Amino acid sequence: MSNTRTKNAMRNSMVALVSQLLYIVVSFVCRTVFTKVLGTAYLGINGLFTNILTILSFAELGIGSALVYRMYKPLASNNVQKVAQYVNLYKKVYNYIMLIITVIGLAIVPFLQYLVDAPNVKENIILLYLLYLMDTITSYMFVYKKSVLIADQKDYIVSIYTQIFNIIMNVLQMIILVLTHSFIIYCLIRTACNVLNNLVTSRYVDKHYPDIERAKVDKLSKNEIISLKEDVKGLMLRQVAAVSFDGTDNIIISKFIGITTVGVISNYTLLTTTFNGIMNKIFSSITASIGNLTVEGDKDHIESVLKKLFFINMTLYGFLSVGLYTLLHDFVTKIWLNNQFYLTQSVIFIMVLEVFLRGIHYPLFTTRNASGKFYQLKWMNLVCAILNIVLDLIFVQFYGLIGVYIATLIAYVLHRYADIYVVYKYIFNKSVLSYYKMVIKSLIYMMLCSFGIQGLFNYIPTTGILMFIVKIIVVTIIYWIGIYILYRKTSEYKYFKKLILGMLKL
């Protein structure tokens, strides 16, 4: 990477990391208050409605990613007119998306009775669902202007505003829960903070990119529209797959196992998604930098950058996964809550395995997005989405809760390895074997490390916070010694080491 690109990527990543860590602390305290005040039934409602509305996000069709990709080149060449054209289109499309989500969301209301059985929730279920629907709809207000900052490698600004309002939101929600126990006001605070966040970010863009606002906006050319439509077609089916993976599990669990189980799961997924969110923030912050790099078209350099990012991502996600597998159960049952809120170690393993396999491929996924390869293998997205739902419905009958997660994992692995094929065939024009070798080696090490440390911890009960901290130290030492032994002679390890030392000097 050039110095400017590296600087932008590092700044975006560091701001994303710091802001996410601050948010984690506050959101964790807020969830603790939520659990103590309202209980698992409300956690289940939160998880179920979030999944339902994730499905409605299909209406976005991946248009945002396609438009951000189209902005890389005009921003790099300071073509304000072209950027303004895409921003204007973004605005129009998202207005339609808000309307579509409203209509479909309201159409779901008559079917809620078949999905929700929550006798311990005193509020009207339809009213609560409508509050969640309103939150989803308003999240699209003014959001189109964020695309300019993301495409211009200034995602750190979006991160700062987002986390500021998230922290304000959680503090207000905690106060309301303690004083009033009102879940309705809790939901309204979230909606208000999301709208204010988008509005403030929009004002920032207006102030710092005035030429875009003032530019005379003509329609995009016919060829540009055709090209954009092709991208959206590919992304639309990818969106179907994403919705299937992220938006169906809690619905199926609620229907076949129970809403309380969804609430118990949400305490675990809060932790897995929180740490996963840190990593996603870091690597989503460098998407624009990779997009800027792909404009230069040096495939060998792009592949070299990808391998370095894969190694960094693999080591960090491996550490995260080993830590979650060996420490998550003890943390939830011994440190945070109690034995009422627990999942079996086998379920935790499948959850963690999915986190790992999703996470290690993020640089590759970022490279594909930044290169605009949206259309290839579009039907594989649909196949994987259908496969996930079918396997979910079959496996939940035979294996219960763990069956749902195994089904999602199978479909996801098939889907992600199609991504690998696309990147290496259409971007690098090379065999995928070298990438597969990296993945298999990292997976084997993560699993051996997890099972080995867990076997050790089975003989060391967690009796308090001090012993839990000791276990964290043990995981850290064993994992990173293993990484050093396995990878110390590779160029990727040397790059990572140099990067860390450079950051420490700062």
Question: In summary, what is this structure?
Answer:
The chain has 21 helices and no strands. α2 runs antiparallel to α10. Helices cover 83% and strands 0% of the residues.
User: Structural class, from helix and strand content?
Assistant: mainly alpha
Integer tally of domains: 2
The parts where pLDDT drops under 50 for at least 5 residues are none
**Sequence of secondary-structure elements:** HHHHHHHHHHHHHHHHHHHHH
Q: List the quaternary state of the chains.
A: single chain
Rg over CA atoms: 23 Å
Shape: globular
Amino- and carboxy-terminal Cα gap: 19 Å
Fraction of helical residues: over 70%
Give me the number of helical elements: 21
Largest sheet, described in full? none
- Would you count the extended β strands for me? 0
The averaged pLDDT comes out at: 83
Strand percentage lies at under 5%
Question: In words, what does this structure look like?
Answer:
- By secondary structure, the protein is an all-alpha fold.
- The chain folds into two domains: 1-257, no CATH class; 297-506, no CATH class.
- The chain is 83% helix and 0% strand.
- The chain contains 21 helices and no strands.
- The chain has helices spanning 3-38, 40-56, 63-76, 80-108, 125-138, 146-151, 155-180, 183-208, 210-214, 222-247, 249-256, 259-284, 287-296, 299-336, 345-360, 362-371, 378-399, 401-427, 433-457, 465-487, 491-505.
- It is globular, with a radius of gyration of 23 Å.
- The mean pLDDT is 83.
